[in-house]
Amino acid sequence: MKRLLEPTEDVVVNLLRLANTKLPADIGWALEAAAGWETGEIARTQLGAIMENVKKAEHLGIPMCQDTGIPVFYVRGRFDSSIASKIAEGVRKATASIPLRPNTVDPLTRENQGSNLGDGMPVIHYIPADVDYTEITVLPKGAGSENMTRLAMLNPADGVEGVRRFVIDSVLDAGGRPCPPSIVGVGIGGTSDRCVEMAKEALLAPLDSDNPDPVLAKMEEDLFSALNSSGLGPMGLGGSTTVLGVRIRKACCHTASLPVAVNIGCWATRRASARITSDGVEYSQGAVL
Amino acid sequence: MRTLRTPLSEDLVRSLRLGETVYLYGPVVTGRDEMHIRALKLSGEGSPVPSGIEGSVLYHCGPIMRQNGDGSWSVVAAGPTTSARMNKLEPEMIRRFRIRAIIGKGGMSKDVAEAMREVGCVYLAATGGAAVSLADGLGACKGAEWLDLGMPEAMWRFEADRLGPLIVAMDSEGGSLYERVAESLVRDRRGLPARPLSGRRGRPGR
């Protein structure tokens, strides 16, 4: 979908509307496949309710989930420092017009300003690149799944098996709380902060894209089948669809460290991107980063 | 599948069986962390709480609401929130206000199950994220209390009109689907040790 050049604030509103009202196609396909293999009545009821809801939300143009999350932004390409305030303004407008639920509060007083803005919000990650466009990607992240985030600073001796164990335990201990069938984002390596960032970035890789690293691709497959053999199932009520996908990113780390982070995305892992060039804006939901 | 009219009687609640699918019609109120805290604080001080909490169906939900030109409210999206956050508050809430049903997602603790067994209350699992369908089922908004808590945390009143599907996931006899699933959970189909070498948090054992 290509449009004429629009102010960045409006691009942000469009992005938040697209992400919140329309599930990315790859996740829709994964849900359909899951509904095909599930046999339990309760699990099938859950998947049926999810798919019906996705259709209604898209048709009516309203958010598929009331937890429209904390919008996490990734800005890639060419940009200047004015982009932060433009994104913030877009969030304010989107909160009122879509509408989004005002989720942002002071962590201690719990005061809610009603705009999804406030100290440190929204979260924006910057990735400068030598290209002739600006790409803004948004990942609205709900608290049910975000609250299940885990970081482990493993010992190098724990190795691949330790990583595997930590991911499986993190997902199964979360139970029905992150709204499974979920998408599991995993970060391996880096520093503690970078590791958690990678786990979240991993959620931006579409389920139908191959991990470019064959070792990680194999780990993803192994974890996918281990988790779906667990019996946790949709909403933690039992079944054979606990996850729709596992996506892993890695970075090098200190010789004495083995950081692993798990950031779970609910079934409604929402994403949308806008590529802004000198002659227009192109929207998509196939973010990779 | 059963359709139930709220408020629910204790007898009816005690007749609900684990795994049953139900749809609700009638009054439902929403409440999350802050609503629980305030209701318990006021009642602890001997102050009155808003009508509609006593004997209610309490939905763990922070909806997206839209205010209409005439000041009334309409629900836009209203799926369940994670119930486990209210684990510490719920036993007292159930006992004090004779809550008959809790709607939420993810299930609740053994302490909550015990209060549910004592009072006659069930836990109904709604599909997480199915916010548009569930908003349809919530029907008309009949007002709000404690709007100063913010839109998600306020107590909203609804007249449910086929709210569901809801699964009886914890019954009034202490039974729980979540517990059943947890007991049969396969941690690793390869049968390797259930925890990483250095402990579940990846820290050296101590």
What does this entry look like structurally?
The complex is a heterodimer of chains A (289) and B (206). Helix content of chain A is 37%, strand content 22%. Chain A has helices at 8-21, 25-37, 41-60, 83-97, 143-146, 159-174, 192-201, 214-228; strands at residues 2-3, 70-77, 123-128, 134-141, 150-154, 182-189, 243-251, 258-265, 272-277, 280-284. In chain A, strand 9 (272-277) and strand 10 (280-284) form a beta hairpin. Chain A starts with a strand and ends in a 5-residue tail after the last strand. The mean pLDDT of chain A is 96. Chain B has 206 residues and is α/β, with parallel strands linked by helices. In chain B, 24% of the residues lie in helices and 27% in strands. Chain B is built from 6 helices and 9 strands, in the order βαβαβββαβαβαββα. Chain B is globular and about 55 Å long. Chain B starts with a strand and ends in a 23-residue tail after the last helix. Mean pLDDT of chain B is 92; it is low at 191-206. At the A-B interface, helix 3, strand 5 and helix 6 of A face helix 5, strand 9 and helix 6 of B.
Query: Of all protein chain pairs, which has the greatest interface, and how many residues does each chain bring to it?
Result: A-B, 61 and 60 residues
- What overall form of chain B do the CA principal axes indicate? globular
Low confidence ranges of chain B: 191-206
| Oligomeric state as shown | heterodimer
Give a count of the beta strands of chain A, DSSP E runs of length 2 or more.
10
- Give me the strand/helix succession of chain B: EHEHEEEHEHEHEEH
User: How many whole angstroms does the radius of gyration of chain A measure?
Assistant: 19 Å
Structural class by sheet pairing and helices of chain B: alpha/beta
CATH class of chain B: Alpha Beta
